[in-house]
Structures are given as C-alpha cells and as structure tokens.
Write a structure and sequence with these properties.
237 residues; alpha+beta; Immunoglobulin-like; 2 domains; 4-stranded mixed beta sheet; 4-stranded antiparallel beta sheet; 7 helices; 8 strands
Length: 237
C-alpha cells in the first residue's frame, strides 16, 4: 500500500513538472542544420535592454524546442552563441505570437536561410521587408554616387542625388504608411510605424493610430504607438 502511494506521488510530481515545463501559449520548434554544439538564446527588448526569456543548449542534436508565455504579439530574437567562433550572422528576429511556430535555418547562413512559419505577423513582416529592402538598396547606390561626386567636386551632381534620396524617403514613408493602414488588424502595423517612420508627419501618424483595430490598439505595440502619438501632439511635433 505504501509503495502504491509513493508511486502515485511520483507520477503526480512527474506530470506536474512536465506541465510546468510545457506551460505557455507559444510553442516554438525548429532545426539549425549543421549545428552540433552551441547555445541558443531567445530574447526580446524591454526598455532598450535585452531580456533573455529562454536558453537552449545544443549538444549533438540540432533540433530545438521552447515554450513561452507571451502577453501580446511582439518581436523576439533567436540568438546563436557558436562558442569558440562568432559571426555577425547570429541574430534572427521573428515576430512571435501565440500558437505554434517553426524556425528552420542553417548554421552557415543562420539569418539568410531562415524559414519561419506559424505567425501571420511574421509573414506580413517578411512581405514588408522585401519592399523596404528596395528602398535601402536604391539609397545605398546613391550614397556611393554622392561620395564620388563630392570627390570630383561636382556640387550640382551632389544636389541632384540628394533630391533623388529625398524622393526615395518619401516613397518609403508612403509605402509604410499604406502598409500600416492596410494591415490595421495586425500588430505588425504599429511596429513598422514605430521602427521605420516614427518621424512621419503628425497628421499621418494620427490617422494610422486611430485606424488600429481594438485588438491591435490594446497590444504591446498598439499601446506604444498611442503613447507616442500623444507625446508628439503634446510637443506639437
């Protein structure tokens, strides 16, 4: 009888520990092909500081798993500590949201080969980045041309290039504003406004802020955008 009670207690303890380990509304699974040993960190930014929410040791098996409890869809970062070596390609941002997400990538191209599924916000973020990258590439090309024009002492060419750069900026701001309005039902909307065009004209900022759905307005980035818009209005900027 005593042995049966002890066995039952042990089973209950095991189940309790298992449930505690798997607690959370976000389940992340993934694989980093080629990684034999290292440490993965899942982090987020809180008040301009990095906060680690999970640490995963990789030893032989490149697959990983994590259970997180997130209050609102938010940008998280999967960071790889390679141990003896390091690379600039060790930081992978992903838009986390409740549910099941999968992150698959490779050791040699940790960022560029990443395939992330299970998050609508992440999918929209990737669509946004493709277009935004065009603006960045165009501007980078013009930066090089402007430097050459300065070396050749061609002020008229420099002025012409700067006007082209202004047009690129306007196109980016228009695209981002429209993207936020078109996706007002998703948390990615206030995120791109805050991170990409936070100095946009107050009229447009106010329009975007008011367009957010009630769900998004109550989210982490929705509240941030509302607070930021109020600050801009108060300062008259």
């Amino acid at each position: 009888m005593t042995k049966s009670i002890l066995a039952l207690c042990g089973l209950l303890l095991f189940v309790s520990c298992k449930d505690e380990k798997h607690a959370g509304n976000l389940h992340i699974t993934g694989n980093i092909e080629g990684l034999k040993q290292g440490t993965l960190y899942i982090k987020k930014i809180s008040d301009t500081s990095w906060v680690s929410v999970d640490t995963i040791k990789i030893n032989g098996d490149s697959h990983f798993e994590s259970y997180l409890d997130i209050q609102s869809p938010e940008m998280y970062y999967l960071m790889l500590d390679r141990g003896a070596t390091s690379s600039i390609d060790d930081n992978l941002p992903f838009f986390a949201e409740p549910g099941n997400m999968t992150i698959n990538t490779t050791l040699d191209r940790f960022y560029f080969n990443a395939k992330i599924t299970g998050s609508k916000n992440q999918k929209l973020y990737e669509e946004y980045k493709k277009i935004n990258a065009r603006f960045t590439d165009e501007n980078t090309t013009l930066v090089g041309e402007k430097l050459r024009a300065k070396k050749l002492n061609k002020p008229e060419r420099v002025d012409s290039i700067e006007k082209l750069q202004e047009k690129i900026t306007i196109r980016k701001y228009n695209y981002t504003s429209q993207f936020a309005l078109n996706n007002r039902d998703f948390e990615i909307a206030p995120y791109v406004v805050l991170t990409e065009i936070n100095d946009v004209n107050l009229k447009y900022l106010d329009t975007i802020q008011k367009s957010m759905s009630p769900k998004v307005a109550k989210s982490f980035y929705g509240k941030k955008l509302t607070e930021y818009t109020k600050e801009r209005k108060k300062a008259g900027l």
